[in-house]
Structures are given as structure tokens and as C-alpha cells.
Amino acid sequence: MRAVVQRVVQGGVAVEGETLGRIGPGMVILVGVREGDGEEDAAWLAGKVANLRIFADDAGRFDRSLLDVGGGALVISQFTLYGDARRGRRPSFTDAAVPEVAEPLVERFAALLRVEGVADVQTGRFGAHMVVEIVNDGPVTILLDTDVSRRGNVKR
Question: What does the pLDDT profile of the chain (156 residues) look like in tens digits?
Fold first, then answer.
């Protein structure tokens, strides 16, 4: 699994003009699922995101996590995180998991954030054309990848 984690002042997601989720200070997390990912990947990623220290302490250092600051999490599924544009001009998405695999893992990731203690977890709608509002704070943007982070420099 791959996640782009952005520290935000606020975030929101809408589909066809209907707001599905909105958070204040916290994180917007764009999540992609790769073919072969599973429950272990979702659990590792949820634990990492909930405890990732990217919020400033009183001295201005990155020393507080989402749990420490009581921030919200907006989880957006995004298969394009597995877009491969090394050849040609149109990205290939062959590494992205099929929707029947990806959707439950994105939902599981959001549920595991709640288990980790994140009180306000909002989500988009899997497979829908979403309008996502991200008001990045800093800007702070971190890329997490279970293939690299959890398993070392492993390529499948």
C-alpha cells in the first residue's frame, strides 16, 4: 500500500456536489492499494499514520502525532498512486489492485485508524469522481509505502 500523507489546516471531499467528509486540522491521506497487498499492509500503514510525528510541539519541532493533537483524518482512495509513467505519455495502472481487492483494504485502513485511536476519520467514496479539498499546512507531505518501509527495499 502507498499513502501520501499531508498535514492540513482543513480538508474535504465531495461527490456530485454532496460533501461526504470534512475535517479541520489533521491529515488528508491519499491511499493506493497494490496487487498483492493485504491486511498486514493496512495494519502497518494505519499504525504508522496515526503515530507519525509531523505536528509541531511547543518548540516548533515535529514531535507530535495525529493522536497527540487530536486531529482528524480524511482518507481518500487513489489508485493513481500506482501509476507508472516511465514509458510513453499515458500512465499504466497495472500495479494497482483491482477494485474488489482495493476497496475493502482502503475501508479496513480507515477502520484501523479508528482502532489506533483517531476519533474523527472521514472517507471519500471508492471509485467515484471526487473533488478533494486539501489545505496543506507547512506544507508537510510524507510518502509512505509498505513495500519499502515495512519490508525494506523490496520490489514485487
Answer: 999 999 999 999 999 999 999 999 999 999 999 999 999 999 999 999 999 999 999 999 999 999 999 999 999 999 999 999 999 999 999 999 999 999 999 999 999 999 999 999 999 999 999 999 999 999 999 999 998 765 555 444
8 Å CB contact between 75 and 110: yes
User: What residues act catalytically?
Assistant: 78-80
Give the fold, CATH level 3, of 2-149. D-tyrosyl-trna(Tyr) Deacylase; Chain: A; (3.50.80)
Q: Is the pTM of this model over 0.70?
A: yes
Does an H or E element contain 49, and which?
helix 39-51
Q: Is 80 helix (H, G, I), strand (E, B) or coil?
A: helix
